[in-house]
Amino acid sequence: MGEFVLGTAQLGLPAYGQVNTIGRPESAVAVQLIRTAIRHGVDCLDTARAYEQAEKVVGEAIKPFGDRIEIVTKLSPLSDLPEEATSGQVCAAVDASVFRSCRELGMASLPVLLLHRWSHRTSHRGAVWQRLQELKNEGVIGRLGASVYSPEEAKAALNDESIQHLQIPFNLLDHRWAAAGIDRLGVQRADVVIHARSVLLQGILAAKPEFWPKVAGVDASDIVERLDALSRKLGRASRADLCLAFTRAQSWIHGLVVGVESAAQLADLLQLFQRQPLNAAEQEMVRREFPSAPETLLNPALWPVK
Questions:
Q1: Arithmetic mean of pLDDT, 32-58
Q2: Which distant-in-sequence residues (6+ apart) come within 8 Å of 300 by Cβ?
Q3: N or C end of the chain: smaller count of CB under 10 Å?
Q4: What is the rounded radius of gyration, in angstroms, for the C-alpha atoms of the chain?
Q5: How many whole angstroms separate alpha carbon 180 and alpha carbon 164?
Q6: Average pLDDT of the residues of the chain
Q7: What is the pLDDT of residues 56-104, one digit of tens each?
Q8: Helix H segments across the chain?
Q9: Is the pTM of this model over 0.85?
Q10: Which residues of 171-210 are buried (b: 16+ CB within 10 A; e: fewer)?
């Protein structure tokens, strides 16, 4: 059953998320949000080198808790590293990202490090992954994995024995994963921890229709109305509750990465994670009511600019 993994993109980037009207909290506020989550039982935080201030905020927040909090971070996207870079340049870029993460987080080693881009598993003639494996063998990295964006990438990752952690975008409108057999592969790879992000699809699944992107063929008002109706029918507290309960019911998903910008949002999430996930019959009702949405809605990178 998937449990609460606190995402920190909102705590590091200036204005992350389609429905974020608050912006990035002050660092002291962000630290307190993280500490409050930990005191209420959250024991895993998700961050990334690309989330600007996030790793530094996380590092400050976890100081009172020793090493009992698992940190999942991600390699830099390496956007400035050309494919033709030499092996020495690749190693330098990887090391710079890894050791900057260690410094910001205040850790001598990284418990879990993910590729931010699956392409880096084989890019640069395999040099990125080779260097990460070397750092893992040296004890600088505990477990290696990848953040992926499609079922095809997830399948490749789950067929790779060196992958130990996987993060995927998943929500109750997105049935591509089951269609591609990722759920079955995930069960077969019991050694791989799988986390789901985009459970609320950058917040829009819990927001009013006017916050939704204008995507051709998608009637936001109709979807919101039907989600509300099903939430009431199933006795859920809200659309957010329905979305979380559906994803938490997927036994092959071990954690849900959800971010917050305020204490009120955090308090609401902590309560919703205390509720029961959907049962099998209720999950089937969701699937019947909501066939898989188009990728133009499921992938925020394809949304029109606001």
A1: 97
A2: 18, 198, 201, 202, 213
A3: C
A4: 19
A5: 20
A6: 95
A7: 999 999 999 988 999 999 999 999 999 999 999 999 999 999 999 999 9
A8: 9-12, 27-39, 54-61, 87-105, 127-137, 151-158, 176-179, 182-188, 220-233, 239-248, 263-272, 280-289, 295-298
A9: yes
A10: bbbbbbbbeeebbebbeebeebbbbbbbbbbbbbbbbeee
Domains of the chain by range and CATH?
A: 3-302 (3.20.20.100)
Give the count of beta carbons closer than 10 Å to the beta carbon of residue 299.
Answer: 15
- Amino acid 189 reads R
Q: Please write the tens of the pLDDT for every residue from 202-232.
A: 999 999 999 999 999 999 999 999 999 999 9
Residue found by looking up tokens 């630290």 in the block: 31
Query: How far is the CA of 66 from the CAs of 3, 45, 108, 109, 147, in angstroms?
Result: 21, 14, 12, 13, 26
Would you state the structure tokens that stand for residue 75, as one six-digit string?
């390699």
CA distance linking residue 271 with residue 154, whole number of Å: 31
DSSP 87-134: HHHHHHHHHHHHHHHHHHHT-SSEEEEEESSGGGGTTGGGHHHHHHHH
Which two three-digit tokens encode residue 32? Answer: 């307190």
